[in-house]
């Protein structure tokens, strides 16, 4: 029970922090990469680019980890708006700096033995 509470607090604190990368949950031990997507948007002068990413597991596997890396090393932000670790779906919103391009490398990890 203490582990679940600690994991919930850690996940919530990671979601509140804006930054270059987003890593939530387990992305290393006994999990497989279920989805890999590269999200890119070109820059438009004086405009912030917003892109949404949606993932839903076709066989209702529970997401164990999410890794979103800013490939451009910019000051873009990424947030999980729904679902995430512990669910079979995730919705994410990415927003670039004003006048800058947007580029993220997103990986969704599931445990193949856990339904």
UniProtKB/TrEMBL annotation:
Q: Name one Pfam family in it.
A: MBF2
Alphabetically list the UniProt keywords: Signal
Q: Which domain of life is it from?
A: Eukaryota
Signal peptide positions (record): 1-19
Question: How is this protein named in the record?
Answer: Salivary secreted peptide
Source species, please?
Papilio machaon
**Where is the organism placed in the taxonomic lineage, from the top?**
Eukaryota, Metazoa, Ecdysozoa, Arthropoda, Hexapoda
């Amino acid at each position: 029970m203490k582990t679940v509470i600690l994991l919930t607090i850690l996940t919530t604190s990671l979601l509140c922090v804006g930054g270059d990368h987003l890593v939530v949950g387990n992305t290393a031990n006994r999990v497989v990469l279920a989805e890999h997507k590269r999200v890119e948007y070109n820059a438009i002068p004086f405009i912030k680019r917003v892109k949404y990413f949606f993932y839903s597991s076709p066989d209702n596997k529970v997401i164990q980890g999410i890794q979103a890396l800013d490939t451009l090393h910019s000051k873009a932000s990424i947030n999980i708006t729904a679902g995430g670790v512990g669910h079979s779906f995730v919705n994410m919103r990415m927003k670039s700096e004003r006048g800058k391009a947007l580029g993220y490398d997103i990986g969704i990890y599931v445990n193949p033995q856990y339904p």
